[in-house]
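User:
Note these C-alpha coordinates:
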Amino acid sequence: MTIFCARDDIFPALPPQVDIVRLPSLFEATGDEATTMDWVPTPQTLHCAPLGWPGIRRAMAVLAGWFDSADPALMICDVSAEIAQLSRICSVPHVKVLQHGDRGDAGHRAAYEGAAGLLAPFHADLAQPDWDAALRARTCFAGGLGVDVRVPEREVARQRIGIGADEEMILVLSGGGGDGFAQAPIGVGARARPAARWITIGKVQRDWHATEPANVEHRGWVDDAADHIAAADLVIASTGNTTCQQILASGRPWLAVPEWRYFDEQHRKADALAAAGVATVRPHLPSSAHGWIAALADTLRDHRPDRQRAMIDDTPADRAALWLEALADRLWTPLAATPSLSLEPRIL
Protein backbone atom coordinates (compact mmCIF):
# COMPACT_ATOMS: atom_id res chain seq x y z
CA MET A 1 0.00 0.00 0.00
CA THR A 2 1.21 3.49 -0.85
CA ILE A 3 -0.15 6.71 0.68
CA PHE A 4 0.32 10.02 -1.12
CA CYS A 5 -0.01 13.13 1.02
CA ALA A 6 1.30 16.69 1.24
CA ARG A 7 2.43 15.92 4.82
CA ASP A 8 4.16 12.81 6.10
CA ASP A 9 4.17 13.78 9.80
CA ILE A 10 0.47 13.31 10.56
CA PHE A 11 0.29 9.53 10.58
CA PRO A 12 0.54 7.10 13.50
CA ALA A 13 2.86 4.12 13.35
CA LEU A 14 2.00 2.13 10.23
CA PRO A 15 2.75 -1.48 9.20
CA PRO A 16 5.99 -2.09 7.28
CA GLN A 17 4.15 -2.76 4.01
CA VAL A 18 2.86 0.84 3.92
CA ASP A 19 4.88 3.51 2.12
CA ILE A 20 4.23 7.24 2.46
CA VAL A 21 5.12 9.47 -0.49
CA ARG A 22 5.11 13.19 0.14
CA LEU A 23 3.65 15.28 -2.68
CA PRO A 24 4.00 19.01 -3.22
CA SER A 25 0.88 20.78 -1.98
CA LEU A 26 -1.76 21.32 -4.64
CA PHE A 27 -3.10 24.39 -2.82
CA GLU A 28 -0.24 26.23 -1.11
CA ALA A 29 1.93 28.57 -3.16
CA THR A 30 5.71 28.50 -2.69
CA GLY A 31 6.62 31.68 -4.57
CA ASP A 32 7.74 29.87 -7.72
CA GLU A 33 4.35 30.16 -9.40
CA ALA A 34 3.76 32.24 -12.50
CA THR A 35 1.33 35.09 -11.90
CA THR A 36 0.61 35.93 -15.52
CA MET A 37 -1.99 33.32 -16.47
CA ASP A 38 -4.85 33.75 -14.01
CA TRP A 39 -6.92 35.38 -16.73
CA VAL A 40 -7.34 31.98 -18.41
CA PRO A 41 -10.69 30.59 -17.20
CA THR A 42 -10.90 27.31 -15.30
CA PRO A 43 -13.16 24.74 -16.99
CA GLN A 44 -16.16 23.59 -14.99
CA THR A 45 -14.77 20.06 -14.83
CA LEU A 46 -11.91 21.26 -12.60
CA HIS A 47 -11.89 22.99 -9.21
CA CYS A 48 -8.29 23.89 -8.45
CA ALA A 49 -6.05 23.87 -11.52
CA PRO A 50 -4.13 27.16 -11.68
CA LEU A 51 -1.67 27.53 -14.54
CA GLY A 52 2.05 27.97 -14.02
CA TRP A 53 2.32 26.10 -10.71
CA PRO A 54 5.43 23.84 -10.81
CA GLY A 55 4.41 22.10 -7.57
CA ILE A 56 1.20 20.84 -9.14
CA ARG A 57 3.16 19.60 -12.17
CA ARG A 58 5.58 17.72 -9.95
CA ALA A 59 2.77 16.16 -7.92
CA MET A 60 0.97 14.95 -11.03
CA ALA A 61 4.23 13.64 -12.48
CA VAL A 62 4.89 11.60 -9.33
CA LEU A 63 1.40 10.13 -9.45
CA ALA A 64 1.51 9.36 -13.17
CA GLY A 65 4.94 7.75 -12.82
CA TRP A 66 3.74 5.61 -9.93
CA PHE A 67 0.65 4.56 -11.88
CA ASP A 68 2.95 3.31 -14.64
CA SER A 69 5.50 1.55 -12.44
CA ALA A 70 3.29 0.15 -9.67
CA ASP A 71 0.30 -0.88 -11.82
CA PRO A 72 -2.03 -0.43 -8.81
CA ALA A 73 -5.19 -2.45 -8.36
CA LEU A 74 -7.06 0.57 -7.03
CA MET A 75 -6.56 4.25 -6.22
CA ILE A 76 -8.56 5.83 -3.39
CA CYS A 77 -9.02 9.58 -3.90
CA ASP A 78 -9.97 11.78 -0.98
CA VAL A 79 -10.94 15.39 -1.74
CA SER A 80 -9.37 16.06 -5.12
CA ALA A 81 -11.66 15.73 -8.13
CA GLU A 82 -8.62 16.41 -10.31
CA ILE A 83 -6.65 13.42 -9.00
CA ALA A 84 -9.72 11.22 -9.38
CA GLN A 85 -9.97 12.26 -13.02
CA LEU A 86 -6.20 11.83 -13.48
CA SER A 87 -6.53 8.25 -12.26
CA ARG A 88 -9.23 7.56 -14.81
CA ILE A 89 -7.23 9.23 -17.60
CA CYS A 90 -4.23 7.06 -16.67
CA SER A 91 -6.42 3.93 -16.90
CA VAL A 92 -6.29 3.27 -13.15
CA PRO A 93 -9.58 2.39 -11.41
CA HIS A 94 -10.33 4.69 -8.51
CA VAL A 95 -12.65 4.91 -5.53
CA LYS A 96 -13.80 8.43 -4.70
CA VAL A 97 -14.47 9.45 -1.12
CA LEU A 98 -18.04 10.78 -0.95
CA GLN A 99 -18.50 14.02 0.98
CA HIS A 100 -21.48 16.10 1.92
CA GLY A 101 -22.05 19.38 0.14
CA ASP A 102 -23.49 20.94 -2.97
CA ARG A 103 -21.46 18.75 -5.31
CA GLY A 104 -23.63 18.47 -8.38
CA ASP A 105 -21.12 20.46 -10.46
CA ALA A 106 -19.35 19.05 -13.49
CA GLY A 107 -16.08 18.43 -11.63
CA HIS A 108 -17.62 16.32 -8.90
CA ARG A 109 -19.89 14.52 -11.34
CA ALA A 110 -16.88 13.53 -13.45
CA ALA A 111 -15.01 12.26 -10.38
CA TYR A 112 -18.01 10.29 -9.11
CA GLU A 113 -19.24 8.95 -12.44
CA GLY A 114 -15.74 7.85 -13.43
CA ALA A 115 -15.17 5.97 -10.17
CA ALA A 116 -15.40 2.22 -9.73
CA GLY A 117 -17.10 2.89 -6.39
CA LEU A 118 -17.63 5.48 -3.68
CA LEU A 119 -16.54 5.36 -0.04
CA ALA A 120 -18.52 7.32 2.57
CA PRO A 121 -16.96 7.65 6.05
CA PHE A 122 -20.38 7.99 7.70
CA HIS A 123 -23.61 6.04 8.20
CA ALA A 124 -26.04 5.54 5.32
CA ASP A 125 -28.74 7.35 7.31
CA LEU A 126 -26.66 10.53 6.91
CA ALA A 127 -26.86 10.41 3.12
CA GLN A 128 -28.09 13.56 1.42
CA PRO A 129 -31.60 13.39 -0.05
CA ASP A 130 -30.30 14.43 -3.48
CA TRP A 131 -28.09 11.33 -3.76
CA ASP A 132 -30.05 8.99 -6.00
CA ALA A 133 -30.42 5.23 -5.64
CA ALA A 134 -27.79 4.52 -8.28
CA LEU A 135 -25.15 6.54 -6.43
CA ARG A 136 -26.01 4.98 -3.08
CA ALA A 137 -25.83 1.48 -4.57
CA ARG A 138 -22.21 2.13 -5.59
CA THR A 139 -21.28 3.44 -2.13
CA CYS A 140 -19.77 1.73 0.88
CA PHE A 141 -21.05 3.56 3.98
CA ALA A 142 -18.82 3.08 7.04
CA GLY A 143 -19.78 5.18 10.03
CA GLY A 144 -16.75 5.99 12.18
CA LEU A 145 -14.18 5.15 9.50
CA GLY A 146 -10.75 6.65 10.13
CA VAL A 147 -11.56 7.88 13.65
CA ASP A 148 -10.83 6.35 17.04
CA VAL A 149 -14.38 6.18 18.36
CA ARG A 150 -13.62 4.42 21.62
CA VAL A 151 -15.42 6.37 24.35
CA PRO A 152 -13.84 6.78 27.81
CA GLU A 153 -16.03 6.31 30.88
CA ARG A 154 -17.52 9.64 31.90
CA GLU A 155 -16.31 9.56 35.50
CA VAL A 156 -12.78 8.57 34.50
CA ALA A 157 -12.69 11.22 31.78
CA ARG A 158 -13.79 13.90 34.24
CA GLN A 159 -11.07 12.95 36.67
CA ARG A 160 -8.43 13.11 33.95
CA ILE A 161 -9.40 16.60 32.78
CA GLY A 162 -10.15 18.06 36.21
CA ILE A 163 -13.95 18.29 36.20
CA GLY A 164 -15.95 17.57 39.35
CA ALA A 165 -18.45 14.74 39.31
CA ASP A 166 -21.38 17.09 40.00
CA GLU A 167 -20.32 20.03 37.83
CA GLU A 168 -22.31 20.87 34.73
CA MET A 169 -19.82 21.10 31.87
CA ILE A 170 -20.53 22.56 28.45
CA LEU A 171 -17.83 21.87 25.87
CA VAL A 172 -17.22 24.14 22.88
CA LEU A 173 -15.11 22.26 20.34
CA SER A 174 -13.48 23.68 17.23
CA GLY A 175 -11.64 21.41 14.81
CA GLY A 176 -8.55 22.20 12.79
CA GLY A 177 -10.16 22.91 9.44
CA GLY A 178 -11.38 26.46 10.07
CA ASP A 179 -10.90 29.52 12.23
CA GLY A 180 -12.93 28.35 15.21
CA PHE A 181 -15.89 29.93 16.97
CA ALA A 182 -15.90 33.57 18.05
CA GLN A 183 -15.27 34.50 21.66
CA ALA A 184 -18.16 36.97 22.03
CA PRO A 185 -21.11 34.60 21.50
CA ILE A 186 -19.50 32.02 23.77
CA GLY A 187 -19.38 34.66 26.48
CA VAL A 188 -23.05 35.47 25.93
CA GLY A 189 -23.90 31.79 26.30
CA ALA A 190 -21.83 31.41 29.45
CA ARG A 191 -23.58 34.37 31.05
CA ALA A 192 -26.94 32.87 30.10
CA ARG A 193 -26.05 29.63 31.93
CA PRO A 194 -23.79 30.83 34.76
CA ALA A 195 -23.95 27.65 36.85
CA ALA A 196 -22.26 25.65 34.10
CA ARG A 197 -18.55 25.41 33.50
CA TRP A 198 -17.85 26.32 29.87
CA ILE A 199 -14.64 24.86 28.44
CA THR A 200 -13.37 25.46 24.91
CA ILE A 201 -10.84 23.32 23.07
CA GLY A 202 -9.37 24.14 19.69
CA LYS A 203 -9.33 27.55 18.06
CA VAL A 204 -11.27 30.54 19.35
CA GLN A 205 -11.49 33.84 17.47
CA ARG A 206 -10.75 36.65 19.90
CA ASP A 207 -13.18 39.59 20.06
CA TRP A 208 -12.11 42.84 21.70
CA HIS A 209 -15.70 43.51 22.73
CA ALA A 210 -16.29 40.12 24.40
CA THR A 211 -17.25 40.58 28.05
CA GLU A 212 -16.25 37.10 29.07
CA PRO A 213 -17.44 35.79 32.45
CA ALA A 214 -15.37 33.75 34.89
CA ASN A 215 -17.06 30.44 34.05
CA VAL A 216 -15.34 30.25 30.64
CA GLU A 217 -12.00 28.46 30.29
CA HIS A 218 -10.05 28.29 27.03
CA ARG A 219 -7.77 25.25 26.85
CA GLY A 220 -6.65 25.54 23.21
CA TRP A 221 -5.32 22.47 21.46
CA VAL A 222 -5.46 19.32 23.59
CA ASP A 223 -4.42 15.72 23.06
CA ASP A 224 -7.42 14.34 24.95
CA ALA A 225 -10.41 15.62 23.00
CA ALA A 226 -12.16 12.27 23.54
CA ASP A 227 -11.97 12.76 27.32
CA HIS A 228 -13.43 16.26 27.02
CA ILE A 229 -16.31 15.01 24.87
CA ALA A 230 -17.05 12.08 27.18
CA ALA A 231 -16.97 14.36 30.23
CA ALA A 232 -19.34 16.97 28.79
CA ASP A 233 -23.01 17.36 29.63
CA LEU A 234 -23.51 19.09 26.28
CA VAL A 235 -21.23 19.66 23.30
CA ILE A 236 -21.26 22.65 20.96
CA ALA A 237 -19.27 21.91 17.82
CA SER A 238 -19.10 22.31 14.08
CA THR A 239 -19.78 19.44 11.70
CA GLY A 240 -16.42 18.28 10.39
CA ASN A 241 -16.18 14.54 9.82
CA THR A 242 -13.88 13.65 12.74
CA THR A 243 -15.85 15.84 15.12
CA CYS A 244 -19.12 14.25 14.01
CA GLN A 245 -17.90 10.70 14.51
CA GLN A 246 -16.47 11.38 17.97
CA ILE A 247 -19.60 13.10 19.25
CA LEU A 248 -21.97 10.53 17.76
CA ALA A 249 -19.96 7.71 19.32
CA SER A 250 -20.12 9.42 22.72
CA GLY A 251 -23.90 9.89 22.58
CA ARG A 252 -23.67 13.37 24.09
CA PRO A 253 -26.27 16.15 23.57
CA TRP A 254 -24.97 18.10 20.59
CA LEU A 255 -25.65 21.62 19.39
CA ALA A 256 -24.20 21.52 15.87
CA VAL A 257 -23.14 24.80 14.27
CA PRO A 258 -21.69 24.41 10.76
CA GLU A 259 -18.70 26.46 9.68
CA TRP A 260 -17.88 27.75 6.21
CA ARG A 261 -16.38 25.11 3.94
CA TYR A 262 -16.08 24.69 0.19
CA PHE A 263 -19.33 23.56 -1.45
CA ASP A 264 -21.21 24.19 1.83
CA GLU A 265 -19.99 20.83 3.10
CA GLN A 266 -20.70 21.46 6.78
CA HIS A 267 -24.12 22.99 6.13
CA ARG A 268 -25.26 19.96 4.15
CA LYS A 269 -23.79 17.68 6.83
CA ALA A 270 -25.73 19.63 9.47
CA ASP A 271 -28.92 19.19 7.43
CA ALA A 272 -28.31 15.43 7.36
CA LEU A 273 -27.63 15.28 11.10
CA ALA A 274 -30.83 17.16 11.85
CA ALA A 275 -32.87 14.95 9.51
CA ALA A 276 -31.49 11.84 11.23
CA GLY A 277 -32.38 13.24 14.65
CA VAL A 278 -28.84 13.04 16.02
CA ALA A 279 -28.07 16.74 16.58
CA THR A 280 -29.79 20.05 17.21
CA VAL A 281 -28.66 22.48 14.53
CA ARG A 282 -28.30 26.26 14.46
CA PRO A 283 -26.87 28.15 11.46
CA HIS A 284 -24.60 30.15 13.78
CA LEU A 285 -23.94 30.55 17.49
CA PRO A 286 -26.86 32.28 19.22
CA SER A 287 -26.39 36.05 19.49
CA SER A 288 -28.46 36.70 22.63
CA ALA A 289 -29.09 35.24 26.06
CA HIS A 290 -32.64 34.19 25.16
CA GLY A 291 -31.31 32.62 21.96
CA TRP A 292 -28.83 30.59 23.96
CA ILE A 293 -31.42 29.51 26.51
CA ALA A 294 -33.69 28.23 23.75
CA ALA A 295 -30.89 26.47 21.84
CA LEU A 296 -29.56 24.67 24.91
CA ALA A 297 -33.07 23.66 25.98
CA ASP A 298 -33.83 22.28 22.51
CA THR A 299 -30.55 20.34 22.49
CA LEU A 300 -31.27 18.65 25.81
CA ARG A 301 -34.95 18.02 25.01
CA ASP A 302 -34.31 16.42 21.61
CA HIS A 303 -31.30 14.34 22.67
CA ARG A 304 -31.44 10.74 21.36
CA PRO A 305 -28.23 9.00 22.53
CA ASP A 306 -29.13 5.54 21.22
CA ARG A 307 -29.84 7.01 17.81
CA GLN A 308 -26.49 8.83 17.87
CA ARG A 309 -24.51 5.72 18.74
CA ALA A 310 -26.29 3.77 16.00
CA MET A 311 -24.53 6.01 13.47
CA ILE A 312 -21.19 4.33 14.27
CA ASP A 313 -20.46 0.87 12.87
CA ASP A 314 -18.86 -1.71 15.13
CA THR A 315 -15.94 -2.32 12.74
CA PRO A 316 -15.96 0.37 10.05
CA ALA A 317 -12.36 -0.25 8.97
CA ASP A 318 -13.05 -3.96 8.44
CA ARG A 319 -16.20 -3.15 6.51
CA ALA A 320 -14.37 -0.74 4.21
CA ALA A 321 -11.37 -3.05 3.75
CA LEU A 322 -13.53 -6.03 2.79
CA TRP A 323 -15.51 -3.89 0.36
CA LEU A 324 -12.33 -2.54 -1.25
CA GLU A 325 -10.83 -6.02 -1.58
CA ALA A 326 -14.03 -7.36 -3.13
CA LEU A 327 -14.17 -4.42 -5.53
CA ALA A 328 -10.56 -4.91 -6.60
CA ASP A 329 -11.19 -8.62 -7.17
CA ARG A 330 -14.23 -7.83 -9.26
CA LEU A 331 -12.30 -5.30 -11.32
CA TRP A 332 -9.34 -7.55 -12.09
CA THR A 333 -10.78 -11.07 -12.18
CA PRO A 334 -11.36 -12.17 -15.79
CA LEU A 335 -14.92 -12.94 -16.70
CA ALA A 336 -15.67 -16.63 -17.17
CA ALA A 337 -15.42 -17.67 -20.80
CA THR A 338 -18.77 -18.12 -22.46
CA PRO A 339 -19.34 -20.54 -25.36
CA SER A 340 -19.42 -18.82 -28.70
CA LEU A 341 -22.64 -18.79 -30.62
CA SER A 342 -22.54 -20.97 -33.72
CA LEU A 343 -24.43 -20.38 -36.93
CA GLU A 344 -24.35 -24.11 -37.75
CA PRO A 345 -27.73 -25.84 -37.48
CA ARG A 346 -28.14 -28.07 -34.45
CA ILE A 347 -29.83 -31.45 -34.31
CA LEU A 348 -32.74 -31.29 -31.92
Remarks:
- DSSP finds twelve helices and 14 strands in the chain.
- The chain has two domains: 2-146+314-332, 154-309.
- The first helix runs from residue 54 to 70.
